[in-house]
């Protein structure tokens, strides 16, 4: 695997292999010697044109745990503000020695352009591009869910027949898209729930059931997992429609809705969360919440992604 741009590109065997390598990486993190020599001599550049806490820091931790040198680049405060292009920025970073570029960018497709343009020879990992994809987020979500469902017997398995509700601002969510492609490739049944105004055009062609009624979806689907999404107000124009109160009342995971979920249903959120808005604290902090497990899995997942792309191993 040279680049990681999308989960839509992954076959089931490839996806299961990435999850199994993530299991290997997670196992090393439980042992005393946490640092592996795998990427010694390689340089990983985190090239972030949008804000991030989890993705940027866990890519940095992952690269360091594989013994790579890490350069963190934020567009704010760089020559990007003087008009430098993505091509010139990436070529500058490669001239400094980048072997891998981890790119977060507001434009959908920017990582694919960087990977396929021939501007650079480095591997490119998509750390979130516009509303398009966030593949390592979906991989860490699938890893977390597979562990919750199959435990120590996870290796080699998909998520066949697992029922997942993905709830909220589907329109702007790259997390929803990457999860939809990956979860269905792994055999899960996905229902997308949210306001009609926050559903993308053409959603009827996606491999998912669509619902606008969260209470009905919970009752009908009896989900094994519910994944709440952040409402991305920064990607909306001034009118936030529906209103915050309407959104929270109809599509938020309130304490009442949390109580209506099956007792075994796992509660997921990619973060950052808007507590009390799309998710109540009683749900976010419950033992059934995987929010912090997802963050921990992010390091092992990104170790696997860096290893597979930087060394060209497997998958
Ligand atoms: N889930 C996620 O991408 O979080 P950050 O924006 O903090 O990286």
Automatic annotation (TrEMBL):
This is Aspartate carbamoyltransferase. It catalyses: carbamoyl phosphate + L-aspartate = N-carbamoyl-L-aspartate + phosphate + H(+). It comes from Amnibacterium flavum. Belongs to the aspartate/ornithine carbamoyltransferase superfamily. ATCase family. Pathway: Pyrimidine metabolism; UMP biosynthesis via de novo pathway; (S)-dihydroorotate from bicarbonate: step 2/3. InterPro entries: Asp/Orn_carbamoyltranf_P-bd, Asp/Orn_carbamoylTrfase, Asp/Orn_carbamoylTrfase_sf, Asp_carbamoyltransf, Asp_carbamoyltransf_Asp/Orn-bd. Catalyzes the condensation of carbamoyl phosphate and aspartate to form carbamoyl aspartate and inorganic phosphate, the committed step in the de novo pyrimidine nucleotide biosynthesis pathway. NCBIfam families: asp_carb_tr, PRK00856.1. The gene is pyrB. L-aspartate binds at residues 82, 174, 230. GO terms for molecular function: amino acid binding; aspartate carbamoyltransferase activity. The keyword Transferase applies. Keywords: Pyrimidine biosynthesis, Transferase. One of its GO terms (biological process) is amino acid metabolic process. PANTHER family: ASPARTATE CARBAMOYLTRANSFERASE (PTHR45753:SF6), ORNITHINE CARBAMOYLTRANSFERASE, MITOCHONDRIAL (PTHR45753). The keyword Magnesium does not apply.
């Amino acid at each position: 695997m040279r680049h990681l741009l999308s989960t839509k590109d992954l076959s089931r065997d490839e996806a299961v292999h990435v999850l199994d390598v993530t299991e290997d990486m997670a196992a090393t993190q439980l042992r005393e010697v946490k640092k592996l020599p795998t990427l010694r001599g390689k340089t990983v550049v985190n090239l972030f044109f949008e804000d991030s806490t989890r993705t940027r820091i866990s890519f940095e931790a992952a690269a360091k745990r594989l013994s790579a040198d890490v350069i963190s680049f934020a567009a704010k405060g760089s020559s990007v503000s003087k008009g430098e292009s993505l091509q010139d920025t990436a070529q500058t970073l490669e001239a400094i020695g980048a072997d891998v570029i981890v790119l977060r960018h507001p434009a959908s497709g920017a990582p694919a352009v960087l990977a396929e343009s021939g501007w650079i020879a480095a591997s490119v990992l998509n750390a979130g591009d516009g509303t398009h994809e966030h593949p390592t987020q979906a991989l860490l979500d699938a890893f977390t869910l597979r562990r919750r469902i199959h435990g120590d017997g996870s290796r080699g398995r998909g998520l066949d027949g697992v029922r997942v509700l993905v709830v909220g601002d589907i329109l702007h969510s790259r997390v929803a898209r990457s999860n939809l492609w990956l979860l269905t490739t792994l055999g899960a049944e996905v229902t997308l729930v949210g306001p009609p105004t926050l559903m993308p055009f053409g959603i009827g062609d996606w491999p998912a059931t669509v619902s606008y009624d969260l209470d009905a979806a919970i009752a009908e689907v009896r989900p094994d997992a519910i994944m709440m999404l952040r409402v991305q107000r920064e990607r909306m124009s001034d009118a936030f429609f529906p209103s915050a109160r309407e959104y929270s009342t109809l599509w938020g995971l309130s304490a009442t809705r949390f109580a209506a979920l099956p007792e075994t249903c796992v509660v997921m959120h990619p973060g950052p969360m808007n507590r009390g808005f799309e998710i109540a604290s009683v749900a976010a902090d419950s033992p059934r919440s995987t929010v912090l497990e997802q963050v921990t899995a992010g390091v092992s997942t990104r170790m696997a992604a860096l290893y597979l792309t930087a060394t060209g191993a497997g998958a």
